[in-house]
Design goal:
The protein is built from 24 helices and 10 strands. Helix 3 (63-75) runs antiparallel to helix 4, helix 3 runs parallel beside helix 5 and helix 9 (159-166) packs across helix 10 (173-184). A 7-stranded mixed beta sheet has the order 5-6-4-3-7-8-10, with helices on both faces. It has a 3-stranded antiparallel beta sheet with strand order 1-2-9, with no helix packed on it. The chain has helices at residues 25-33, 48-61, 63-75, 80-93, 98-105, 109-123, 129-138, 144-149, 159-166, 173-184, 193-200, 204-213, 218-223, 225-231, 236-243, 245-251, 255-267, 273-288, 319-332, 369-376, 387-396, 427-436, 473-479, 485-490; strands spanning 11-13, 19-22, 293-302, 334-342, 351-352, 358-363, 406-411, 442-447, 453-454, 461-465.
Length: 495
């Protein structure tokens, strides 16, 4: 009997105190992991404790799944810090999976120090032998430049501390000398944009030299776009890199990183047509090669107040920005899409239901994802997740148009409407729509915050989670019966 992958039919209440369905352990853990900047607050409170609690349960009963989840989070969904947390849990409670996890989660040299610091913070000393053994092994994979770049600086856990804890055996005399340099602080200062700017200043000449050297990575170029433009450096080579399809794919940036850069430049009055074009092209790369979602699709973007929290303390990107961005990207791959933005009160004008809720809908594909994000990303009011389904019922009532084939929700799932449906959830409206218009109607719920409850259940419901464009691929996979996000993680290759 499955302990974790049980059907999501049990009723509960969400964090707002309203009716919802429980997620099973795997669903809850996956949604929480895929939607967290670990250690950062959320509107309804941090999910950190729940992640550790669920991961610990999983490590004891289904460690193979937890190992695959940690590796998938790091290498596919680009969720770095939470993959370190999962690795620490595995090292504590599932020693036999430490090797496979560490080998896939450690991508950069500072993954080593972050995992060790994470374990120390969570569990204290001593470090498990399996963790020490694997860290001693993976530290040998990095050269002097990488060790110097990520040596730990003024952080509590440095690479020299890792060497003293793990006692790796050097492979040869050269590596023995390299480890001695780490211990003695005699590593050659790496040529990086950080060291050069620190030594020489944020000037046009320095940036031009750095850009020409090819030593500035994709993420650094994107995050420093404002500094580069303000310095007066040559911007065209930078924009060429940022918009190059191959470079975009290799960078594995979360889509909201592009909008964050654009939003910052927009606030500073630094957006030119060329800048807009480059960042728009970078976003389009993520979805332009995806399979078209045929038929009519209703895309429902949650614009309620709880979506207004930023993804991290230092970020300007809110959860509603991610929802709006993902909704616009989804519309690009839909054959026929209607995108609606909903909350509960009168934040928008447009369709009005009998319970005084409001919704606005836009039809067809968007010309510019970035422009839509700037113009349509809002957060305010309560959360009435029934509004998109009421819109669908209203839209198709008495009209000779093809019914919707699916609805895709981008939401934190914290429905707190006073409306009560057949089940006290939005499922009642879905059942009504299937009965009246389309028995094969699908509901895809893209969870953006991982609080652990949902408004839908049963056949024809597909739970997805995350901030990466790859979540959109699970729409057609589920409808074709090929697999879901949890299925994919369960079979993710780690050997």
């Amino acid at each position: 009997m499955s302990k974790f992958n049980t059907p999501n039919t049990s009723k509960t209440t969400n964090l707002s105190g309203y009716a919802a369905y429980k997620m099973n352990v795997k669903e809850h853990l996956v949604t929480a992991v895929m939607t967290t900047m670990f250690g950062e607050p959320k509107f309804y409170g941090s999910t950190d404790t729940e992640i550790v609690k669920l991961a610990t349960l999983c490590a004891k009963d289904e460690p193979d799944f937890l190992c695959r989840l940690a590796c998938y989070a790091r290498n596919v969904s680009n969720m770095r810090s939470v993959s370190h947390v999962l690795t620490a849990v595995i090292a504590r409670h599932a020693h036999e999976y430490t090797r496979r996890t560490v080998r896939r989660v450690v991508v950069r040299a500072d993954d080593i120090t972050e995992i060790m610091a994470c374990y120390l913070s969570m569990y204290g000393k001593p470090f498990p032998n399996a963790l020490k053994r694997e860290m001693a092994s993976v530290i040998q994979l990095f050269d002097e430049y990488q060790l110097a770049k990520y040596n730990g600086g003024n952080k509590s856990m440095k690479l020299k501390d890792v060497l003293r804890i793990t006692h790796p055996t050097p492979k040869n005399k050269e590596q023995e000398a390299l480890f001695r340099k780490v211990l003695d602080h005699t590593l050659k200062t790496p040529y990086t944009w950080e060291t050069e700017l620190s030594a020489r200043g944020n000037t046009k000449e320095v940036w031009n030299e750095l850009i020409a050297s090819g030593k500035v990575g994709y993420m650094a170029l994107l995050r420093n776009l404002r500094n580069i433009i303000s310095s007066g450096a040559e911007i065209e080579p930078v924009l060429n890199v940022l918009s190059d399809p191959e470079q975009v794919r290799k960078s594995r940036q979360l889509p909201f990183r592009f909008f964050s850069a654009y939003k910052m430049l927009h606030a500073e009055g630094m957006v030119t047509d060329r800048v807009h074009q480059a960042l728009e092209q970078a976003l389009a790369v993520s979805v332009d090669n995806m399979e078209t979602i045929s038929g009519r699709t209703l895309i429902a973007v949650d614009s309620s107040g709880s979506m207004g929290n930023t993804v991290s303390t230092n970020s300007i990107i809110r959860c509603c920005d991610i929802g709006t961005l993902m909704g616009a990207m989804a519309s690009r791959i839909c054959e026929d899409a209607v995108v609606c933005y909903f909350d509960q009160s009168g934040s928008y004008s447009g369709f009005k239901d009998t319970n005084e809720g409001y919704i606005i809908a836009r039809y067809g594909k968007y010309d510019s994802i970035l422009d839509i994000c700037m113009n349509e990303s809002h957060a305010g009011g309560g959360t009435d997740m029934s509004l998109p389904m009421k819109f669908a019922l209203h839209e198709d009532s008495g009209r000779s148009i093809r019914p919707f084939d699916r609805v895709i929700y981008f939401s934190d799932n914290e429905c707190n409407s006073s409306w009560k449906g057949l089940y006290g959830t939005v499922q009642g409206d879905v059942d009504t729509y299937r009965k009246k218009y389309n028995p094969n109607f699908w509901v895809h719920g893209v969870d953006l915050q991982g609080y652990g409850t949902q408004q839908f259940r049963g056949e024809g419901f597909n739970l997805i989670a995350g901030w990466s464009e790859n979540v959109l691929s699970f729409i057609l996979l589920a409808e074709k019966g090929i697999g879901t996000l949890v299925d994919t993680i369960e079979h993710y290759a780690i050997d």
